[in-house]
Amino acid sequence: MIWTSLDTWIVVAAAMAGVSSALVGSFLVLKKMSMMGDAISHAVLPGIALAFIITGSRAGGTMFIGAAVIGVVTAVLVEAVRRYGRLEHGAAMGVVFTILFAIGLILLERAAHHVDIHPEHVLFGAVELVPLTVVRIGRFDVPRGVLVLSLVTFMNIAVVTVLFKELKVATFDPALATTLGINANAMHFLVMILVAITTVAAFDVVGSILVIAMLIVPGATAHLVTRRLVPFLCVAVALAILAAAAGHVVAIGVPPLFGFEDTSTAGSMAVVLGLFFFLAFLFAPETGVIARVVNRVRLVFTVATQDVLGLLARARERGLNADEGVETGVIDARGRAGLSVRGLRSVARSPFAARSVVLRVALVLLNARRLVARRAGGFVLTERGAREAQRVLRSHRLWERYFFEDARVSRAELHTAADFLEHYTDEQLSDELEDRIVGPRTDPEGRPIPE
């Protein structure tokens, strides 16, 4: 693989297209209007084609003006069709952008006979050709596409920076924005204009089809990683830059390994962005599949260990000799009999083969944490385990007392209701429940509530 100055300009152009698209596309993702980017990227074709027909060239601001106007028209038409046609939002976008896209294709075919433009480049982009058209700036030759994308990128950064508070409030709570004197509709249409202009600027790089990936995928990936707006935007921008560099390297480096020529950089960028999204989908710290599985397994065993502690605490209350211990089979049988309703229901839906397996693993974990100890073929609570078991038992019986006195739950359902919540109750909530007790500190069956 040979790297030249042309490759550097290709990566710079792709990065600028990615950054400008990721900035405005992130707000589409946050507003749950991702498909609006698809609609606008297709619907601006009539404006571009008319600009080509009128000016006879791809240069000039007429192209961006036409795109901005059509972008706003698209947003207005979608809202009008949705409101007055009584259609859901997706159907309204489908009606508007397909019609405008068809008109744009007809005009584009007409424009192609008069202007040096290829329809397939408008649809799919040709970032590899960007360095071939240059403009002179001082003593340097800069590709025209890079210059245009740089201006659009800095414009998007400036708008997001200056109007950050307004965009933030209008995106997450339009009603609050109106109350604060912020015109939420103006912010909405401003984002639509930026999307339209960015889409046109990125046509040379990724066209009107793959630009959707540049608009949506960085924001969608960032949404899996963080929930704070500033880190959200930073992650989206960083992913766009990485995808530009990695996409071009993949495009020129991977196909020759298999005996093929290089492939489309724009297509490789979209594939890399898809790979980033897949990795975030799997490994995101909170919302990733693996994190959710780990949290699920942790919850199952947390519930199971607390249920075992509660069982051993009840056994001690019934006068079981501390030297004998509670046999594993007894714990297993009591668990099967429904003592740990919440825990065993979770286990039943878990990937483990049987409830008894989870209960036995819970005993191993408790023994490793020195909360229980083996005695005469069974298990007893250690001093630390007894304190933890008393906390679980206290939470359970406080909930039983609360449900019986305040919620008027029948005695037959008290254990099930309390067993559900005892695992999610901290000391503060337990103290608040205890303050509601009037009379003796016992559960509805007369059993003492531990201190």
Question: How is the topology of this model organized?
Answer:
Blueprint: H1 5-30, H2 34-43, H3 45-55, H4 62-84, H5 89-112, H6 119-124, E1 134-137, E2 140-143, H7 144-162, H8 164-172, H9 174-179, H10 184-201, H11 203-225, H12 229-253, H13 265-283, H14 289-317, E3 326-327, H15 328-336, H16 341-348, H17 355-368, E4 372-375, E5 378-381, H18 383-405, H19 411-421, H20 427-435
Antiparallel strand pairs: 1-2, 3-5, 4-5
Give an overview in words:
The protein has 451 residues and is mainly α. The protein folds into two domains: 5-284, ABC transporter involved in vitamin B12 uptake, BtuC (Orthogonal Bundle); 291-435, Winged helix-like DNA-binding domain superfamily/Winged helix DNA-binding domain (Arc Repressor Mutant, subunit A, Orthogonal Bundle). Helices cover 71% and strands 4% of the residues. It has 20 helices and five strands. It has helices spanning 5-30, 34-43, 45-55, 62-84, 89-112, 119-124, 144-162, 164-172, 174-179, 184-201, 203-225, 229-253, 265-283, 289-317, 328-336, 341-348, 355-368, 383-405, 411-421, 427-435, and strands at 134-137, 140-143, 326-327, 372-375, 378-381. The strands form two sheets. The chain has a three-stranded antiparallel β-sheet. It has a two-stranded antiparallel sheet with strand order 1-2. Helix 4 (62-84) packs across helix 10 (184-201) and helix 11 runs parallel beside helix 13 (265-283). The longest helix is centred in the last third of the chain and has 29 residues, at 289-317. Mean pLDDT is 80; it is low at 335-354.
